[in-house]
């Protein structure tokens, strides 16, 4: 499962890296895993799409939390319009305001944000950040699949844009974790990540998956915003634990 | 003999072998069967068949639910008792299995029967039935005693064949079907032996075909179709019989008949497997579907009664509602055509309650199919949206759904067209027609199949494009392509075909890299590149050549095609020193199909060449005769072949060069000191490339006598000059004239005419004039807003005298033949003659006057009017107002040589008013001729030339200011401007004596408009006038060509301005006096007056409500509307800021006298 997660992230980094000129960073002190390196490269490559992550200046943990928080709010906002459009695309009853289907067993593959709130609060920052990181990585992969199947070009375009932003959030969370000195989760826990297209047996179930994906995304973003807000208050903005250096290779 | 079949279950079924009926109760629960079969004898098989047939009927008629259970009754354990051989045991087992396979396994579970052999009795009721027309089964009844005895059975068909006899223990035999009749003798053995003879005719034999057997019934769930296969058993029947097959489709647990169809076939004396399929309007998943079949064989030769066979056992396709755990909405994700009627069902668990079913956003009424299945019916389905229409079944605690894709079958592709641009790829395009409404995997797919090569290419098309495109590779050594464009989507398919020879469908790419590789004064070499391998064809390229002074021309070049190569071409016969724009496009030469797009253009200027010809020249002696002035005309652009830098004038006496002069542009004449001698003058025009051939003219002027001077006035647009033929003028005539522009020496112009000419019109309008303007900046503005034609081409102005001279050309030289004085149009004299009064006596005076200067006559002078009347100031006024003054006397003097007149019979000690006027054919010079004086040249203060000599006692002269009190409105468009005398009299301008000659200089009336910008007027208005006053007033007239850019909200005011036109100056002076007051009233006046003193810039900001207080808006708008400055006559060009200003308010401006420049300066 770890491999597929890495694969997913890597492919993201490769496909969405129209870097010009190639800008690379290294981590100081050197990261313990190749994954971090990949992540940072991906982060830098995605700089133009990331309003919240700016490599050119040194980021304190507080700052990067703030930026992650901002990005989360931005994504929340973005998702609100995207979800509206997408649910309209799915057609009734998915776009009906009171549509609340029972969650099918197969939809559990989408990481659920329905953990009890007290339980969630009881987790450590690290655990919560890691859960966030894992969840968005997975959600992102699902979202990419979604993107590939949509019939209309305009919606595809918007989904791609959202994916890019979400990718930014994943990297941003990674950045926060690094700046706080937490290791990045090696791979997502829970059920195995989809290797490619989730094999929904029919179109209706696929639509249900899409519906749940959006719903979960919404819940995750809502909760993440709360998490980062809390974290922000905890961490003074001046602390600098991550140092990025632009260096020509 | 006893056949006893005993089952371990209670026996619900009774079988009566005699009646052939069976009463069967369905078992309460599935049974494990143990059958005990006691078969002491061997003939169980046929008995079982009979039993089975009966049971089948019994079961299917009465207990359909039993059918369902049959699968559960998988085993029959048989115990054989008695001395049954192994072989027999096998036969019995097989028989039972066969019965089971026939669809009635259960009947054995419930069967117990006794087959008793009774004592012998009389056989009766012999019945024969044939199933195959070949053999028949005959049965008969016997009395109970005879049941178990042996029977001797004999039959004979006719007398010729021997009787066939055999013994049987049963009461049924199989014997051949007779052709006509058969005689049967049945002899029962037993206690009471009985023999009976029957004669059976064919008509007594029933024909009931064998019950058909369904070989297979296959469901096609996606298409909701059933495929049925069965054998026609044709091998047992003679060839060629018609067979009818009745097929019944039943549905639901209750086996409701959905449809019954009849299928026809012909028997071929072979076993043929027939098949039939049926499409259900309800998905097969929704509920169970059953099929059974029976047949009727129309054996026409057979005369006995014919009947349908029994129904075959029903085959079933069980619905999802019979499957444990089966649920969902069906059909699943179907693709259907728009307009279809659709049935959807929702299969759910038995214990779930269904809430509703929706299609799209609409809820539909459900019908129950079974306890676990409900259906809705949607009629005339519409196109679904791109993700499909959802069919949702809401259950009490769950949700099931399906997505239906409703779209259109693809249209046949229209306008299929294939072409190649490079002989590598064939590009086919077509119009797809109506969108299918299907997306993703269900979208319409295209493939291009080429029949000759068998190659198939699937096309990736962009649905969004109106034209679809598909590429097919050019195949080696293939020219003709037989394309079939196949279109398909899940709903349907279509195709379109095209046969093309690609060498005839060449559409080259746009030529690139167009460059000029060489040029001279008349030719240009071009090179360009075309991507593509055209080795097999010739290319036709078209080069477009255009320049600013010639029409666009196309040159075709045919070149052999090459592989991705450059091509060159040379263009000849170009004009020197001309900037050409060139571009190229190409096509196939032999089979034109399409031009490529034009390449990017290049520009190239050809080099200069020497001028093509020498200039037109003329010469004149200076008045002193000491020098000769040589004139030449500029060469046209097409003749100059470059920029003319100079003219070289040389003077030869025979072969001796007397003088050589180089005259640089822009001079068009030169003076040669020649003295009294003569020479031949040669003039060449020179540009950078060289000199023109020389033009020659001799300086010799032949003496002429009797030179007359004629008068001529233009008719139409030119001055007509005619003369008698002079036969000795061998080389034509020349009409020469002079454009005088007042103080400057006149510029000479001429025209040549051939010797047979006696009548020419010197046109006032001339094209191709070289026009140099002193005020170039004016010209720009001027060209924008004026009729260019008027200014540029009017050679002759009205009211100006032109002197024409007609010369004849002889080999020796030129001879003056005639002078002509002419006007383009006669106008009234500009001034009245100056006159003085002399020799005053008590009753007479002598009035003397002077000639009016020629330039002020503005026409041929016809005479003078001398008016005089008694009285003071206003004595002469009534005449103007036509009210008639009895005292007024007018003398018309038509003798132009007369320069004085004595007036007699005057009263002494009386004041007289005198007025002397001159007139031409153009009219009379009025006293108060409205003119706006030019302050610089104003004679207002000089007033009258002879004022000092004037007799003050008799001639009332008041030094009234020369206040312009009447204005002249000039129509700008008219070539001969109309003059209106508005005769607005200012109270300030009341003078007793006409201001003859006192008016300021008036330019001739070609003036379109003028901006007499400033009147530096020492205010001399009588005190009765408006008090106060400004010393500087600017008058701006409103030009007729003035196109105000109107702000919508300003319309009313602008309207006023435009309609007001030119307002009398009188009014203006009133407003002008108030200017500095800035009172609201005054602003009002300013606005309505239509023109404004420049000093009040606020007033130009008309309409902007906040503008008076806004400095910015003042600046924004002020200068653009003010062509004249306060203190100078300079025309103000709008500043940069104003050009950028989005809403210039007043774009009108005026022209001053500047524009009276001669057009051919």
What this model shows, in words?
The complex is a heterodimer of chains A (249) and B (1161). By secondary structure, chain A is mainly alpha-helical. Chain A has two domains: 2-45, no CATH class; 61-234, Growth Hormone, Chain: A (Up-down Bundle). Chain A has seven helices and two strands; from the N terminus they run H-E-H-H-H-H-H-H-E. Chain A has a two-stranded antiparallel ribbon with strand order 1-2. Chain B is mainly β. Among the domains of chain B are: 123-207, Immunoglobulins (Immunoglobulin-like); 327-407, Immunoglobulins (Immunoglobulin-like), CATH 2.60.40.10; 409-504, Sandwich (Immunoglobulin-like); 512-605, Immunoglobulin-like (Sandwich); 617-767 and 791-823, Immunoglobulins (Immunoglobulin-like); 826-873 and 887-924, Immunoglobulin-like. In chain B, the strands form 20 sheets. In chain B, strands 52, 53, 55, 56, 58 and 59 form a six-stranded mixed beta sheet that branches. The model of chain B is unreliable at 1-46, 49-64, 68-84, 103-120, 767-793, 878-883 and 927-1161 (pLDDT under 50). Chain A binds chain B through residues 89-94, 96, 101-102, 149-153, 202-205, 207-208, and chain B through 329, 332-333, 358, 360-361, 384-390, 392, 397-403, 439-440, 464.
> What is the number of helices of chain A?
7
Query: Over the alpha carbons, how many angstroms does the gyration radius of chain A reach?
Result: 18 Å
What's the architecture of the domain at 617-767 and 791-823 in chain B in CATH terms? Sandwich
Average pLDDT metric of chain A: 67
Largest interface: A-B, 20 and 24 residues
Largest sheet of chain B: 6 strands, mixed
Order of helices and strands of chain A: HEHHHHHHE
Report helical residue fraction of chain A: 55-70%
The level-1 CATH class of the domain at 617-767 and 791-823 in chain B: Mainly Beta
Shape call of chain A: globular
Protein name (chain B): Fibronectin type-III domain-containing protein
Subcellular location (chain B): Cell membrane
Main location (chain B): membrane
Family (chain B): Belongs to the type I cytokine receptor family. Type 2 subfamily.
């Amino acid at each position: 499962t770890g491999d597929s997660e890495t694969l997913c992230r890597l492919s993201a980094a490769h496909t969405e890296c129209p870097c010009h000129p190639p800008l690379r960073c290294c981590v100081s002190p050197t990261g313990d895993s190749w994954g971090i390196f990949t992540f940072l490269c991906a982060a830098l490559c995605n700089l133009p799409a990331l309003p919240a992550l700016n490599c050119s200046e040194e980021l304190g943990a507080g700052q990067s939390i703030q930026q992650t928080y901002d990005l989360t709010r931005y994504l929340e906002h973005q998702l609100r319009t995207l979800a509206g459009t997408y649910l309209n695309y799915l057609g009734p009853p998915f776009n009906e305001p009171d549509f609340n289907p029972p969650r099918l067993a197969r939809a559990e593959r989408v990481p659920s944000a329905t953990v009890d709130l007290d339980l969630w609060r009881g987790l450590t920052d690290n655990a919560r950040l890691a859960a966030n990181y894992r969840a968005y990585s997975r959600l992102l992969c699902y979202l990419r699949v979604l993107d590939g199947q949509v019939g209309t070009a305009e919606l595809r375009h918007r989904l791609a844009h959202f994916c890019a932003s979400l990718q930014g959030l994943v990297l941003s969370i990674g950045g926060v974790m690094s700046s706080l000195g937490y290791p990045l989760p090696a791979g997502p826990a829970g059920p195995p990540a989809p290797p490619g297209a989730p094999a929904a047996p029919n179109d209706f179930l696929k639509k249900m998956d899409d519906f749940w994906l959006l719903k979960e995304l919404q819940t995750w973003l809502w909760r993440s915003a709360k998490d980062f807000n809390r974290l922000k208050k905890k961490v003074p903005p001046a602390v600098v634990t991550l140092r990025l250096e632009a260096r020509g290779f | 003999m006893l056949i006893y079949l005993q089952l371990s279950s209670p026996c619900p079924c009774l079988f009566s072998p005699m009646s052939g009926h069976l009463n069967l109760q369905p078992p309460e629960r599935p049974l494990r069967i143990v059958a005990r079969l006691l078969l002491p004898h061997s003939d169980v098989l046929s008995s079982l068949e009979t039993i089975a047939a009966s049971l089948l009927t019994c079961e299917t008629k009465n207990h359909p639910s039993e059918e369902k259970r049959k699968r559960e009754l998988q085993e029959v354990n048989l115990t054989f008792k008695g001395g049954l051989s192994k072989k027999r045991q096998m036969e019995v087992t097989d028989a039972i299995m066969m019965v089971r396979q026939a669809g009635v396994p259960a009947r054995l579970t419930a069967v117990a029967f006794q087959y008793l052999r009774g004592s012998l009795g009389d056989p009766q009721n012999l019945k024969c039935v044939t199933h195959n027309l070949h053999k028949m089964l005959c049965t008969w009844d016997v009395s109970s005693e005879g049941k178990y005895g042996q029977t001797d059975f004999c039959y004979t068909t006719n007398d010729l064949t021997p009787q066939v006899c055999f013994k049987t223990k049963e009461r049924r035999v199989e014997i051949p079907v007779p052709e006509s009749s058969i005689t049967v003798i049945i002899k029962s053995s037993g206690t009471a032996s009985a023999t009976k003879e029957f004669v059976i005719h064919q008509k007594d034999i029933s024909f009931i075909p064998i019950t058909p057997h369904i070989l297979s019934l296959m469901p096609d769930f996606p298409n909701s179709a059933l495929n049925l296969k069965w054998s026609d058993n044709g091998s047992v029947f003679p060839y060629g019989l018609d067979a009818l097959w009745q097929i019944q489709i039943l549905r639901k647990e209750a086996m409701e008949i959905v449809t019954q169809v009849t299928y026809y076939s012909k028997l071929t004396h072979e076993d043929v497997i027939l098949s039939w399929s049926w499409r259900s309007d309800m998905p097969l998943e929704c509920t169970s579907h059953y099929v059974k079949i029976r047949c009727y064989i129309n054996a026409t030769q057979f005369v006995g009664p014919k009947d349908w066979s029994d129904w075959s056992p029903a085959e079933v396709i069980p619905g999802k509602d019979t499957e444990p755990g089966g649920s969902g909405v069906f059909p699943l994700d179907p693709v259907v055509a728009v307009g279809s009627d659709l049935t959807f069902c929702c299969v759910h668990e038995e214990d779930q309650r269904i809430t509703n079913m929706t299609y799209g956003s609409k809820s539909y009424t459900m019908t129950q199919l079974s306890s676990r299945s409900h259906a809705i019916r949607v009629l005339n389905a519409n196109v679904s949206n791109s993700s499909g229409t959802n069919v949702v079944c809401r259950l009490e605690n769950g949700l099931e759904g399906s997505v239906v894709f409703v779209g259109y079958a693809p249209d046949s592709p229209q306008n299929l067209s294939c072409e190649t641009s490079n002989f590598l790829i064939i590009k086919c395009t077509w119009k797809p027609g109506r969108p299918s409404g299907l997306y993703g995997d269900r979208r319409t797919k295209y493939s291009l199949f080429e029949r000759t090569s068998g190659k198939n290419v699937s096309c990736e098309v962009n649905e969004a494009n109106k034209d679809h495109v598909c590429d097919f590779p050019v195949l080696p050594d293939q020219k003709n392509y037989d394309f079939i464009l196949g279109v398909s989507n899940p709903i349907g398919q279509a195709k379109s075909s095209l046969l093309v020879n690609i060498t005839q469908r060449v559409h080259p790419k746009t030529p690139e890299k167009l460059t000029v590789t060489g040029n001279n004064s008349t030719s240009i070499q071009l090179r360009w590149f075309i991507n593509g391998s055209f080795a097999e064809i010739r290319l036709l390229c078209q080069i477009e050549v255009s320049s600013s002074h010639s029409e666009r021309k196309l040159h075709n070049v045919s070149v052999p095609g090459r592989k991705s190569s450059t091509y060159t071409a040379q263009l000849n016969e170009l004009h020197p020193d001309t900037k050409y724009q060139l571009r190229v496009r190409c096509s196939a030469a032999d089979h034109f199909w399409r031009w490529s797009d034009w390449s990017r253009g290049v520009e190239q200027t050809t080099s200069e060449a020497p001028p093509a010809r020498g200039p037109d020249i003329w010469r004149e002696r200076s008045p002193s005769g000491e020098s000769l002035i040589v004139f030449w005309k500029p060469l046209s652009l097409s003749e100059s072949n470059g920029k003319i830098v100079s003219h070289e004038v040389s003077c030869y006496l025979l072969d001796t060069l007397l003088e050589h002069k180089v005259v640089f542009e822009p001079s068009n004449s030169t003076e040669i000191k020649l003295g009294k001698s003569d020479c031949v003058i040669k003039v060449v025009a020179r540009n950078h490339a060289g000199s023109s051939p020389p033009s020659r003219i001799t300086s010799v002027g032949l003496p002429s006598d009797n030179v007359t001077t004629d008068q001529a006035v233009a008719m139409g647009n030119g001055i007509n000059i005619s003369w008698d033929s002079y036969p000795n003028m061998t080389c034509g005539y020349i009409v020469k004239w002079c454009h005088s522009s007042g103080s400057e020496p006149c510029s000479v112009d001429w025209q040549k005419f051939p010797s047979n000419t006696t009548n020419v019109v010197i046109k006032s309008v001339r094209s191709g004039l070289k026009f140099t303007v002193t005020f170039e900046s004016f010209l720009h503005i001027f060209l924008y807003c004026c009729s260019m034609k008027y200014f540029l081409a009017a050679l002759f102005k009205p009211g100006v005298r032109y002197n024409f001279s007609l010369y004849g050309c002889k080999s020796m030289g030129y001879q003056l033949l005639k002078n002509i004085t002419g006007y383009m149009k006669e106008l009234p004299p500009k001034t009245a003659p100056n006159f003085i009064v002399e020799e005053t006596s008590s009753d007479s005076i002598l009035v003397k006057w002077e000639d009016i200067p020629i330039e002020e006559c503005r026409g041929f002078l016809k005479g003078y009017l001398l008016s005089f009347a008694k009285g003071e100031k206003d004595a002469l006024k009534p005449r103007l107002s036509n009210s008639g003054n009895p005292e007024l006397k007018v003398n018309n003097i038509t003798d132009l040589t007369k320069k004085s007149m004595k007036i007699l019979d005057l009263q002494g000690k009386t004041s007289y008013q005198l007025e002397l006027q001159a007139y031409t054919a153009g009219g009379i010079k009025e006293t108060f001729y409205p003119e706006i004086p030019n302050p610089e040249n104003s004679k207002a203060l000089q007033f009258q030339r002879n004022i000092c000599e004037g007799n003050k006692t008799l001639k009332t002269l008041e030094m009234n200011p020369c206040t312009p009190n009447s204005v002249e409105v000039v129509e700008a468009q008219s070539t001969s401007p109309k003059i209106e005398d508005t005769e607005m009299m200012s109270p300030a301008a009341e003078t007793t004596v006409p201001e003859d000659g006192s008016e300021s200089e008036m330019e001739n009336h070609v003036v379109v408009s003028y901006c007499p910008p400033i009147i530096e007027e020492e205010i001399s208005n009588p005190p009765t006038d408006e008090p106060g006053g400004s010393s500087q007033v600017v008058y701006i007239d409103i030009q007729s060509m003035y196109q105000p850019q109107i702000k919508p909200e300003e319309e009313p005011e602008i309207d006023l301005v435009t309609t007001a036109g030119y307002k009398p100056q009188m009014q203006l002076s009133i407003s002008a006096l108030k200017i500095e007051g800035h009172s609201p009233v005054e602003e009002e006046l300013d606005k309505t007056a239509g023109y404004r003193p420049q000093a009040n810039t606020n007033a130009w900001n008309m309409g902007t409500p906040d503008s008076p207080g806004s400095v910015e808006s003042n600046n924004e708008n002020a200068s653009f509307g003010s062509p004249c400055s306060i203190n100078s006559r300079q025309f103000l060009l709008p500043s940069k800021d104003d050009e950028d200003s989005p809403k210039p308010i007043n774009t009108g401006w005026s022209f001053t006298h500047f524009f009276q420049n001669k057009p051919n300066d």
